[in-house]
């Protein structure tokens, strides 16, 4: 039961953040401090994996896999952001 609650919380945050990044990509919001490419990647990763985690939790009833999928975007984005900061030009 705790796993399902965590999956719902994490997936909801992932979908929310993914939707915000998506709105930044299509220029409805202008709040992103990252490049357009990075924002687009964040939108795809957060939205995709958030929805996938909800699918695994509610449709297939595999909460442990859904939890790993829900945490996945945070690990992926952390690595991507680190690479982006090292290779980016901040003039």
Polypeptide structure, described:
With 91 residues, this protein is mainly α. It has one domain (2-87). Helix content is 79%, strand content 0%. The chain has helices at residues 2-25, 36-58, 63-87.
Total of domains? 1
Head-to-tail CA distance between termini? 49 Å
| Helix fraction bin | over 70%
What is the chain-wise order of helices and strands? HHH
The number of helical segments is 3
Rg, rounded, reads: 14 Å
Describe the biggest sheet?
none
Shape: elongated
**Category by helix and strand content:** mainly alpha
Averaged pLDDT: 91
Say how many strands there are.
0
- Unreliable parts: none
Quaternary state of the chains? single chain
Fraction of residues in β-strands:
under 5%
Question: Short description, anyone?
Answer:
The protein has 91 residues and is mainly α. It is built from 3 helices and no strands. Helix 1 runs parallel beside helix 3.
Which properties best describe this structure?
91 residues; mainly alpha; 79% helix; single chain; 3 helices
Q: Mind sketching the topology for me?
A:
Blueprint: H1 2-25, H2 36-58, H3 63-87
Helix pairs in contact: 1-2, 1-3, 2-3
């Amino acid at each position: 039961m705790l796993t399902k609650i965590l999956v719902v919380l994490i997936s909801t945050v992932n979908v929310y953040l993914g939707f915000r990044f998506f709105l930044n990509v299509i220029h409805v919001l202008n709040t992103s401090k990252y490049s357009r490419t990075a924002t687009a990647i964040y939108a795809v990763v957060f939205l995709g994996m958030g929805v996938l985690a909800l699918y695994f939790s509610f449709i297939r009833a595999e909460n442990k896999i859904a939890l790993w999928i829900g945490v996945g975007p945070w690990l992926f984005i952390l690595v991507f952001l680190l690479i982006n900061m090292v290779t980016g030009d901040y003039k």
